[in-house]
Specification:
The protein contains one helix and 29 strands. The chain is mainly beta. The protein has a domain of about 35 residues. The strands form six sheets. Strands 1, 2, 3, 5, 6, 8, 10, 12, 14, 16, 18, 20, 22 and 24 form a 14-stranded mixed sheet that branches. The longest helix is centred in the N-terminal third of the chain and has 36 residues. The N terminus and C terminus are likely disordered.
């Protein structure tokens, strides 16, 4: 009995020692990780607060307390390269008029220059890989920006409400544009998308009321991307998915090129495009959503490529391939003759076809 009892005590002691050892190793690992990314307290160099990151081999700017004007962020502090601008580092610096970011910087944190309302010029150097959420939010004096190809993703809301922004250059290499990235940038006049773009997020250019052209749109185009761009007159979509309401309420849109490679046109995709008179649907489109052309009161013709496997058009009216189902009657048609083969009509196919006397639509 006594031997069994002693063995039990020994086993419990061994387990306790092993547990203490594992706990000690975990504590050391946590300390190592914390010290490897941030120091405990920020330091100061001139007008800048900073801290060492990545085991002391790099510097991150954490704050600014200067008088504003034209600011040059140092390329190095104490011989250590500045590679990062921390989130909110320059937030509310309303006296800042221009900022020069050194070429060593790879990271611009969330809301880093948020509401720098006097900022009119910023260089984003090649090498920057990340522009965070709201990085330049409401920089209402900023007039132009070039996004280098090293930036994989333009963060959500990153240039949102930059109301003086007239020119945006998105370089080849940029892969995605986040939600509301250029939302209500009311002075922006045109945008050309590089071939590298794979994703354009929800409302990315919504409310850009001076935007007149959008070229080489492609990738996954989420809903309402160009909604309420009331001056937009032309758009070229080269491939991908047109999401729900992408061009909704683009009242001046009169020229749309949908290239072979576009596969989907989402619900309400071209709703209330009052200036659109005709549209061509290529053979690659395999899905057309609900009420895509609703309230587009001047639209008289929907043409479908004869090679399209799912859809067809007869006299400018959209049908399924076998012409057994009428899908959409353009709102600008005055009259339509339905082929005898058509045995069904989808819901809302004639929702905007009410033209009698001075009303828009078509009369059966």
């Amino acid at each position: 009995m006594w031997g069994i009892f002693e063995r039990g005590i020994g086993q419990r002691k061994l387990c306790l020692h092993i547990g203490i050892g594992i706990l000690f190793l975990l504590v050391l690992l946590c300390v190592f990780l914390v010290q490897g990314t941030k120091t405990v307290a920020a330091e100061t160099s001139g007008d800048f607060d900073y801290q060492y990151i990545n085991h002391g081999f790099e510097v991150e700017i954490t704050g600014y307390h200067g008088s504003g004007g034209d600011v040059v962020i140092p390329a190095a502090i104490n011989g250590i390269p500045v590679t990062s601008i921390r989130q909110q580092a320059f937030q509310y610096c309303d006296s800042l008029t221009s900022v020069t970011i050194p070429g060593e910087v790879t990271y611009i944190g969330n809301w880093a220059f948020d509401k720098c309302t006097s900022l009119n010029s910023v260089n984003i150097p090649d090498g920057v890989a990340f522009i965070g959420e709201g990085a330049f939010y409401s920089c209402t004096s900023l007039t132009s920006v070039t996004i280098p190809g090293t930036v994989a993703s333009i963060g959500n809301y990153s240039f949102n409400r930059c109301t003086a922004l007239t020119s945006v250059t998105i370089s080849n290499g940029v892969n995605s544009i986040g939600w509301g990235a250029f939302y209500i940038d009311t002075s922006l006049t045109s945008v050309t998308f590089p071939d590298s773009i794979a994703f354009i997020g929800y409302s990315a250019f919504m409310g850009c009321t001076s935007l007149t052209s959008a070229i080489n749109i492609h990738g996954i185009i989420e809903y309402d991307v160009f909604r309420d761009c009331t001056s937009l007159t032309s758009a070229t979509i080269s491939s991908g998915v047109i999401g729900e309401g992408v061009f909704r309420h683009c009242a001046s849109l009169n020229s749309v090129t949908i290239s072979d490679g576009v596969t989907t046109i989402g619900d309400f995709g071209f709703r209330a495009c009052f200036s659109l008179t005709s549209i061509n649907i290529p053979s690659s489109v395999t899905s057309i959503g609900y009420a895509v052309f609703s309230a587009s009161s001047s639209l008289a013709t929907i043409n479908v490529n004869a090679s399209n496997p799912n859809y067809a058009s007869v006299d400018g009216v959209l049908y399924n391939k076998t012409i057994t189902t009428l899908i959409a009657c353009p709102g600008g048609k005055v009259s339509v003759s339905i082929p005898i083969s058509a045995t069904s009509i989808v819901n809302a196919a004639f929702a905007d076809c009410t033209r009698q006397d001075n009303r828009y639509g078509c009369v059966l």
